Amino acid sequence: MPYKAWFQCIAGCEEKHPLNEIIYQCPKCGNLLEVRHDMEILKTRSAYAWMKLFDERFMRTEWPYGSSVWGKKEVVCPNVHNDNIVSMFEGGSNLFCAGRLGKQIGVPDLWVKQCGNSHTGSFKDLGMTVLVSMVKQMQADGKEIPAVACASTGDTSAALAAYCAAAGMQAIVFLPRNKVSIPQLIQPLSNGAITLSLDTDFDGCMRLVQEVCSKNNIYLANSMNSLRVEGQKTVSIEIVQQFDWEAPDWIIIPGGNLGNVAALGKGFLLMEELGIVRRRPRIACAQAANANPLYLSYLTGLKEFKPKRAKKTLASAIQIGNPVSVQKAIKILKEFDGVVEQSTEDELANAAALADTTGLFCCPHTGVALSALFKLIQKGTVKSDDKVVVISTAHGLKFTDFKLKYHRKKLSGIKSRHANMPIELPATYKRVCDTIYRELERRAN
């Protein structure tokens, strides 16, 4: 079946652009592009047939369909030949049943989609496999692309570096100096990326990488490139698939550059048009209060949006004041009866720590989403009988410094309500037993 996809303006300009064209914005109006699919061709297969096909491929080993992204190739990026796909069999991440935490906060049917359980430790792998594969296809077709570049607060650079290394391409990453964790910094270094540590913030890195790419034929890998959205939208399909093809009531997702919000909604709209789902979940975008331009826009009914200079936040990956995908995200929030909530530094740190006490191991960005959920429950926006999915965007092991400082009570302005440090004792039976029973009694109360 000749499945087809192309770039087209999100604002409605009719001109179509092939996916192998190096283009990120509409030449007519300047808005971002999105990938469009020939839905009439996709609809020739029934909803049941799509579900059956996706289930047959899910987590298998046939190349490339064992990837949860490429197992949905027809609705993601049919333009790449299988021989040019660069995949690490991404996706298929755990949908963690967070019932213990859910009961504590008043929503027993709580789930956490652990997108950080992936090759580079974040959901960015889902989009990067599509983008790097498309670049490999373009190179195979004769296009000269010397490198692929991105601005990043950590996770995007790790994903780009790993996939480029697997493909034999050169990655270039622009990082804001001293604003990414050591585990995040070491990833692109290990995978051979040209790593530029710049004396600016993410927004400054973003401006510079766009200029460098536009003037030097280097391919841009940030989320303004909508190929990434096509991979990231499979999170929606995967969640529904893991719930036996039923949509939850709510999805809570942390937002920085806001490509993830756009991708989440796009996946559900696709499934709705194909007849796979009959209802949409509501979407809540969670922002750190120190980097909250979308939340401030939400307070105006999403009628106005003004970029702001993001302040330092523990949730460093979403420390973004001028998100490139804001118009896409606003469109999705309006279509999904969405809400935006914010989390202070104290709230996000303690939310992550509380979740950890129930068996999770949360990055600070997941803490933002969880603390936003707590607020939405308190407001009555999220009901006690709702099925709720929180998107965990990265693995907690990328943020061990954050976690250690929390438990040592060394995070400025944070009251560590769930701190838990080792108890240093002499190696004697009596002292050990006395301490154990004292702690058991204290924790029981």
The portion of residues forming beta strands comes to 5-15%
Helix residue percentage: 40-55%
* Number of beta-strand segments: 13
CATH topology group of the domain at 95-120 and 229-407: Rossmann fold
Q: Give Rg in angstroms.
A: 22 Å
What is the CATH architecture term of the domain at 95-120 and 229-407? 3-Layer(aba) Sandwich
For the residues shown, what is the average pLDDT?
96
Largest sheet: 6 strands, mixed
Spatial separation of the terminal alpha carbons: 64 Å
The computed structural class is alpha/beta
Element-level helix/strand string: EEEHHHEHEHEHEHEHEHHEHEHHEHHEHH
Taken from the alpha-carbon principal axes, the silhouette is globular
Number of helices: 17
- The low-pLDDT segments are none
Q: At the first level of CATH, what is the class of the domain at 95-120 and 229-407? A: Alpha Beta
Give the neighbour order of strands across the main sheet. Answer: 4-5-13-10-11-12
